[in-house]
Amino acid sequence: MLYLGCALAAGGVLLYKLHGLREAPSATLVAVCLCTGFPMLAFIAAAPSLYTRIGRASGVPDLATLLVYGFITCFSGSAQVLASLWSAEVRHPAEAWEAARPRVIRRLAVFATALSLMTALFAYAACTGALTGGPHPLDFDTFYSTVPTVVVFQFVYQAGFAYALLGVSRACRRHAAHLTDREPERTALRTGVLLISRGCRVALGYSTCKLLAISAAATGGGTTWDVLSTVVGPFFASAGAMLIAAGFAYPAVQAWAGRRRDLLALRPLWLVAADADRHLLLDPLPPATRRQVAVRDLRWRISRCITEIRDAQLAMRIWEDPLTADIARHHARRLKYSAERVEAAASAAALLGAIRTRNAALDNLLYTARTRALSPQALAEAVTATLTQGLGTAAPRRPLRLAATPRGGQRAELDQLILIARALESRPVTMALRQSLRERTGHGR
Questions:
Q1: What are the residue boundaries of the DUF6545 domain, all occurrences included (predicted)?
Q2: Exposure of 400 by Cβ count < 10 A (0-12 exposed, 13-18 middle, 19+ buried)?
């Protein structure tokens, strides 16, 4: 169950990374997918139940050992590729492949040679009858420690695995230091890289235990050290694999959680935008339950929300009253809001006030239509004229000072809109809407 649990964890990380690879292909993501996919296959094949079935189906009782060690050797090669990409001194990640390609090719050639040698040694041992008896999913290493071919097979595998773990651990520490110096805001990625480094160091305990147990058994130590091979070594391997999987998953999970928080924070403003004009929405407004449990395509959902909110702000601009925004600014400054929150309160008050004014104008128009018994065509023309005119000349002729689209890309724009969303029910906005209504209706005199 321990092996299957590790395989399940690696499989979950792999699925998420494959989704990211589809959205933004890169050599680094390909290497990450390979580094999670090969251990997943190794842990599946190492599970005793499947190990036995593979041997029974193939006629070679311990064939699964070659599969497990082969998958781990492929992981070692992929890990070396990832280490080379992370170690490349480039300004942009897209340039990493070109910078690291010669080193990647050399290291892949080393591990391809090791895998070929392991396959040949295992095939020779199987063909010469050295691998006799039933399957040995847990004690293969020590059971065949007196067979020279199998011992060489073991040492080639363990040497390649330990070399890869040491290389990846060093590369991760250097990459984490690079992130600290040049991209200090990427704390989640730095934490994930350090988790991978620690996982590699923990997994080194697996190779150490295996080599000690094999050496002891080969020199006549009997089964005294078998516990290192059958219990302690697999524990180090599983713990290291879980840490490595956590390191790959942590930045992605943190990014997903951050996007979900942003989407939920943006929802109130997006619902206001939907109230402004449902025709601005790309899709019909989903039920509240579906909005709360949205977990997929968050980046696309956020982009869509931003676009629809901006469209609503633009559509409501003709109904905005600068007086409402100025009152909100006044109250926000009295409450010692920061400059960004002051402008967010002004924008929120202006949008809500514009929607309120537009709705009141349409209500008055419908009341007039009923009292005067206007025909449908006349009513439609009146509605079109009202929506086109907006406040018209009734509004003060002053330029609006609402927050414009900020520089800094979508992140800066998203942060601004979240501030506006949080300001919708704030005290300055509530007071501005109440006071501007009194001013416009004449009750404030």
A1: 255-363
A2: middle
Q: Which amino acid appears at position 266 of this protein?
A: L
CA distances from 203 to 13, 41, 122, 410 (A): 18, 17, 24, 41
Burial of 354 (0-12, 13-18, 19+ CB in 10 A): buried
Residue 440, H or E segment: helix 427-441
Do 34 and 22 meet the contact criterion of CB atoms below 8 Å apart? no
pLDDT in tens, 161-215: 999 999 899 988 988 888 888 888 888 989 999 999 999 999 999 999 988 888 8
- Nearest-angstrom CA–CA distance, 138 and 227: 10
> Torsion angle of alpha carbons 36, 37, 41, 42, nearest 10°?
-40
Residues 419 and 416: their CA atoms lie apart, in Å, by 5
Question: pLDDT digit string (tens) for 246-275?
Answer: 998 898 889 888 988 998 899 999 889 888
The count of residues in the chain is 445
- 102 by Cβ neighbours in 10 Å (0-12 / 13-18 / 19+) ranks as exposed
Single-letter code of the amino acid located at 274? A
* pTM (two decimals): 0.76
Query: Any residues with CB less than 8 A from the CB of 156 and at least 6 apart, and which?
Result: 114, 117, 118, 121
* Domains along the sequence of the chain with CATH: 2-258 (1.20.1070), 261-441 (no CATH)
